[in-house]
Amino acid sequence: MKFMKLGSRADTFYTTGDVRSVSTEVSTDIVIIVEETKYLLHKFPLLSKCLYLQRLCSESSVALKASHELVIELDDFPFGIEAFEICAKFCYGIGITLSPLNIVSIRCAAEYLQMTEDVDKGNLISKLEAFLNACILRGWKDSLLTLQSTKSYPTWSEDLEITSRCIDAIASGVLSFPAKPNLSHSYSRLGKDDMTCNGAASQRHGAGGVVASQGWWGEDIAEFGIDLYWRTIVAIKSGGNVQANLMGKALQIYVSRWLPNMSKEGIIKSEDDSESIEEITVKYRFLLESIVSLLPMEKGSVSCSFILKLLKAGNILGASVSSKMELARRVGTQLEEAKVSDLLIPTLSANGTQYDVDIIMTILEQFMVQGQSPPTSPPRAKAKLRRRSRSAENFNFEFLESRRSASASHSSKLRVAKLVDGYLQEIATDPNLPLLKVIALAESVPDFARPEHDDLYRAIDTYLKSHKDLNKTERKQLCRILDCKKLFAETCMHASQNELLPLRMVVQLLFIEQARASLAGGIVTELPNNIKVLLGTQDGDSLKPLPPVRNITIVKPMAEEWSISGPTSPNSKISTLRMKLTEVEDQMDDIVVKNTNSKLKSFQSFRSIPARPKKMLSRLLSLNRIT
């Protein structure tokens, strides 16, 4: 920290009660009252350097004579008795010490008292300006401390351009030495805060390594209020010499420092906080929206988890629609990095869903828009060989880049589909979650992004258990999004015993089980075409051999654990099917019977299955027990 001393005389100020005076052989002839403190001083040294006191003394309306003393009250002096006393000591030639901690208040007080060069050569203002420009603004820590002290006198500091000069000095320090952590607070406490110092840049110890050394300035400026912080970041960004990820790191440090963790209930007010909940909410909302406006435009400059944290806070604080849409757009560009817990954004609606599903739909729409794959096959080259031109080489390079982009987009969609299924499992227990939103979420990702439907089935099963009031049509509508052929063996077995699924899906699952068992045992090598039609398979999409049994990791334990060893009792599958048959027997019309009879002859080469639905299912069960 830099210091400057002015004056050489000893300090002769003393206190008597609430009166401050100066010890001299000459009696005092002026009384100045500042914040209920009375100063007994002399006219000559004060009026020779303070133009404002000269004017007050000449105006009889504000100056009163009592005996031989002139009384002046400085009611509107806002800078404190310490700043006034330092200015008075300078007038007497008494030694004073200037530092980054008091220069702002003294500079404002000198401006108030009009201690300019027009009054006396070498006056206080000129000396303060020289110290500010030559020393303070050249040091990193000194600039930080000075800027921090301007918040006590924002209007005066702005008018005197102290604030803007400090911000420019800090931005210049970041842009000039982007990788010198020896300039930061932790290092400058050792006395090495001069921006012009020489020597190799040292790295901060601990986690972070190079990133911590490059972002050394982020922690230091995180002590500012949001107004000064916003202006400082804008000044740094305007220089264009700082990487976007370092800017994002600085923003994350600031948010973790100032934005509290919030739940659906909102902000928890501390006992020492005198502000009301409404005032605190407004303050944090302004902070959040300011941070959103500072986010770098480059993808990946901040983590997806951080953006979702801002979005969650914005929902709770009631941030503007534009801020939330901007955050949703940014999340959509890197949604594959998110976790299920990040997507659980609470909604404040009293009778609505537990989580904000609409904003997740918006994020998914943004992801699908930016994830459009470029063409993946170049035009065919001519048979005749010729020398490749530079433009052809550029075209091939661009094509390879597009292939890489397409591959990345494909893998991103696979990860996002997995993320959506996990999110559906979490929100499926919400009793207020509409069926159409579940279907819309499940269908928001393309079919190829789900090579297996085990996670999707878990979400459907959880939703059916939590919404047992769904009618048959709604259950069928929900289960249409599930592809039985993409279920693994243990999941398929669990689904075939699920009493909440529609009967047609259970029948299809039983067929698939038997078909897989036959293919795996080598009884048949390929299914007949009419069986493919019955099972809903397409050309080239016949059932594959039974995959090896794998362990299923369930993120959220279900109330009913799944068993991969089949029914616990031999009659459990029969009882389940009988109950379903009784429930929908009136819906099994002649069309189903005719369709079954028409496929009977060719299917007998595969498995002997009776035509009647009840006998067919019982036969399947008996075959299952045999195999």
TrEMBL record:
UniProt-listed Pfam families: BTB, NPH3
Presence of keyword Ligase: no
SUPFAM superfamilies found in the cross-reference section: POZ domain
Keyword Lipoprotein: no
All copies of domain NPH3, residue ranges: 215-516
InterPro entries: BTB/POZ_dom, NPH3/RPT2-like, NPH3_dom, SKP1/BTB/POZ_sf
Domain of life assignment: Eukaryota
Pathway: Protein modification; protein ubiquitination
Keyword set, alphabetical order: Ubl conjugation pathway
Family: Belongs to the NPH3 family.
Identification of the protein by name: NPH3 domain-containing protein
Organism expressing this protein natively: Papaver nudicaule (Iceland poppy)
